[in-house]
Design brief:
It is a single chain. The chain starts with a strand and ends in a 6-residue tail after the last strand. By secondary structure, it is α/β, with parallel strands linked by helices. It has a ten-stranded mixed β-sheet with strand order 1-9-10-8-2-7-3-4-5-6. It is built from seven helices and ten strands. Bound molecules: NADP nicotinamide-adenine-dinucleotide phosphate (NAP). NADP nicotinamide-adenine-dinucleotide phosphate binds next to strand 2, strand 3, helix 2 and helix 7.
Length: about 260
C-alpha cells in the first residue's frame, strides 16, 4: 500500500491504514457519522443480482471495511442492504479487544432503517447477532411486521411516513450512547443521510473495474438533486494494486457568530 495524499515516501502496512483514524465523539446531539462504500471506476455500487457472487472490491477492501467498524459504537444500514446481505456487520473475534481498549462494546450495535418493516427476521442479521440489533421504523410500518421485529430486535419509531434522520441520530446519541456511527449504505439510505445533513465523512474505495449497464446504482441515489450540493475535501488517498482508498471530509459553511 502507498499513500498518495498527503504524500509520503515508501510503503505502509496494507491493513493498518485505518488503525489511527481519529474520529471525534459527535456533537450537537448527534453521532459523528462516517460513510463507507466501494464502487467501480464507472461509479457503480451495485451489480444487479451478481454482487454476492462477484464482489466489487478486493479482499483488502473487505478487510478494511471490517477494520473501520473497530472505531464506532454502531453500524447503520438501509433495509435494502440488509435484505441483499442479511448478516450482522460486526468485527471478528480477534479485533474485539481493540474495541474494548478504546472503551467500546466488544461488537458494534447494528442499526437498520426501514419503512416497510420487510426485514429477513430468519437471517443471521437477527438470529446470529452478537448483540440485539436496533430497527428504526415508522408508525406506518404494518403491525404484523412490527410484531415479528419486536421478537428479534429493539425497535424505535422515529417518523410517520419516513424515518426522520435528525430525530433518529438524536435518539442514537442520547438514548443508545452512540457517539461515532458508521453508515454502510446502501445508496438510497445515503441520499437520505446527505439530505438530512448527518454525514461527516466519506470513505470511498474505487475498485479498478468497469461494470457498464444502466440499471445499477451509484453511491447516492434518490429523488432530486441534493441542494445545496454537499462539498467534500480530501483527507487521504492510498493505492494498493490499482485500488484507491479515499477519505473525504464534509465541508460545512462556518457559522457567523
Ligand atoms: N458498494 C457498496 O459499498 C454497497 C454498500 C451497501 C449496499 N450496497 C448495495 O446496495 C443495494 C441496496 O441499496 P438500496 O439503495 O436499494 O437500499 P438501501 O439504501 O440499503 O435501503 C433502502 C431502504 O432503506 C429504508 N429507508 C431508507 N431511507 C428511509 C427513510 N427515510 N425512512 C424509512 N425507510 C428508509 C427503506 O426500507 P423499506 O424498503 O424497508 O421501507 C428503503 O427502501 C444492495 O444491492 C447492496 O448490495 C452496496
Amino acid at each position: 500500500m502507498q499513500r498518495l495524499f498527503p504524500a509520503v515516501a515508501g510503503h505502509v502496512e496494507t491493513l493498518s491504514i485505518y488503525d489511527d483514524i481519529d474520529l471525534p465523539a459527535g456533537a450537537d446531539g448527534r453521532p459523528y457519522t462516517i460513510l463507507n462504500m466501494v464502487s467501480t471506476v464507472d461509479g457503480k455500487t451495485t451489480l444487479g443480482e451478481n454482487v454476492v457472487k462477484q464482489p466489487i472490491g478486493s479482499d483488502v477492501d473487505r478487510q478494511l471495511m471490517v477494520r473501520l467498524r473497530v472505531h464506532v459504537d454502531a453500524v447503520v444500514r438501509g433495509a435494502g442492504t440488509v435484505r441483499a446481505s442479511p448478516y450482522y456487520p460486526g468485527v471478528p473475534e480477534e479485533l474485539e479487544h481493540v474495541r474494548v481498549q478504546r472503551g467500546l462494546e466488544r461488537q458494534p450495535l447494528a442499526v437498520v432503517v426501514t419503512g416497510s418493516g420487510d426485514l429477513p427476521v430468519d437471517a443471521p442479521f437477527f438470529r446470529a447477532a452478537p448483540r440485539r440489533p436496533l430497527v428504526l421504523l415508522t408508525t406506518r410500518t404494518p403491525p404484523a411486521r412490527m410484531m415479528k421485529l419486536f421478537e428479534w430486535a429493539d425497535v424505535e419509531f422515529v417518523g410517520d411516513d419516513s424515518v426522520n434522520f435528525r430525530k433518529a441520530w438524536g435518539l442514537l446519541y442520547e438514548k443508545y450512547g452512540v457517539k461515532r456511527l458508521l453508515c454502510e449504505g446502501g445508496p438510497r439510505l445515503n441520499q437520505d443521510c446527505f439530505a438530512a445533513d448527518v454525514l461527516d465523512e466519506v470513505f470511498w474505495t474505487v475498485a479498478p473495474r468497469v461494470a457498464g449497464g444502466s440499471m445499477d446504482l451509484t453511491m447516492v441515489e434518490g429523488h432530486g438533486l441534493l441542494q445545496p450540493m454537499p462539498r467534500l475535501e480530501l483527507v487521504h488517498a492510498y493505492v494498493h494494486d490499482s485500488e484507491l482508498f479515499l477519505r473525504y471530509k464534509r465541508v460545512r459553511a462556518q457559522r457567523a457568530d
